[in-house]
Design goal:
It is an enzyme of class 2 (transferase). By secondary structure, this protein is of the alpha/beta class. The chain has helices at residues 9-16, 22-33, 37-42, 50-64, 69-73, 94-106, 124-132, 145-158, 218-230, 246-255; strands at residues 75-78, 81-84, 114-118, 137-142, 163-167, 180-185, 231-240, 259-265, 271-277.
Length: 283
């Protein structure tokens, strides 16, 4: 059907439901027709303009092909904020919100903390911590200049003046003069031969942010190797990782000289986070 004179909002949703989820269909229609969720519910029989219908069909076809919803609409929710998202960055995941919760826990009694988010991508972790702790100084580091452009856009959106964006690979070429209270990261951790890399959604995300093209642990080796020298006594290193990588990451933390090494489960009960602390100074 090409004539939008016959295509109402409700009929468009029904058409889209043949190939995609109902919620995705509703969100794409809101985006394509520039209407609110309330308007979609209150006025389901509004007829789409020809351009809206054409745009909606294209978006539905792309979503049916596995392209993430966030890339189609250009944003994703994270920790109560809407972040700009492009194919240059990962789509923020709920599991990463739990890593942020852990970070806020360990920083609760630390005044004016200095934080480094390694591999910041969209800036989701760095900006969330900066908003929750306006007294903090946050360094958001990424090797991808395209990803940093997205992080910069989100920084402007959220008004986080306490975040410095740094174009670098891990620790190369920058330092915090007084040391760091927290290093946090959700680095590329999928092994190169993992079939998930070609799965729905994931195959559209930047490969650089997904895999080290090796065993999935190279980023943790690099992060662990430089952590103790850069952390303040008592400072923390917290990371997200794959559900089966907890033991390997914990071993790297211990080899690096971190103490109080522990893991955390995500809300699904999977071991998805590991943390460790630089030893405090002796009394």
């Amino acid at each position: 059907m090409s004539a939008s004179a016959q295509m109402t909002r409700v009929r468009a949703i029904q058409w889209a439901r043949q190939s995609i989820d109902r919620l995705d269909a509703r969100l794409l229609l809101q985006f394509a027709s520039e209407c609110s969720a309330n308007a979609l519910i209150a006025d389901p029989d509004v007829v789409l303009e020809e351009a809206q219908w054409t745009r909606f069909q294209s978006l539905v076809q792309r979503r049916a092909g596995g392209e993430p919803l966030a890339y189609l609409v250009g944003e994703a929710g994270f920790y109560g904020a809407l972040l700009a998202v492009t194919p240059d960055v990962l789509v923020p995941r709920p599991e990463t919100e739990e890593l942020v919760d852990w970070a806020l826990d360990v920083l609760r009694d630390q005044p004016a903390p200095t934080i480094a988010d390694l591999g910041t991508g969209s800036g989701a972790i760095a900006l969330t911590l900066a908003r929750a702790r306006p007294d903090a100084r946050v360094m958001a580091v990424d090797v991808s200049s395209a990803a940093l452009s997205v992080a910069q856009l989100n920084q402007q959106r959220l008004g986080c003046a306490n975040v410095a964006l740094i174009h670098a690979s891990w620790y190369d070429g920058w330092q915090a003069a007084d040391g760091l209270d927290l290093i946090i990261s959700n680095p590329p951790y999928i092994p190169a031969d993992d079939p998930h890399l070609s799965g729905d959604g994931v195959r559209f995300e930047p490969r650089l942010a997904l895999t080290d093209e090796a065993d999935g642990l190279d980023a943790y080796r690099a992060i662990a190797a430089g952590a103790v020298a850069r952390l303040k006594p008592g400072g923390w290193l917290l990371v997200e990782h794959g559900h089966d990588q907890g033991a390997a990451v914990a071993s790297l933390w211990l080899q690096a000289g971190l103490v109080d090494v522990r893991g955390r489960l995500d809300l699904s009960g999977n071991p998805r986070m590991t943390g460790g602390q630089k030893p405090a100074r002796s009394a």
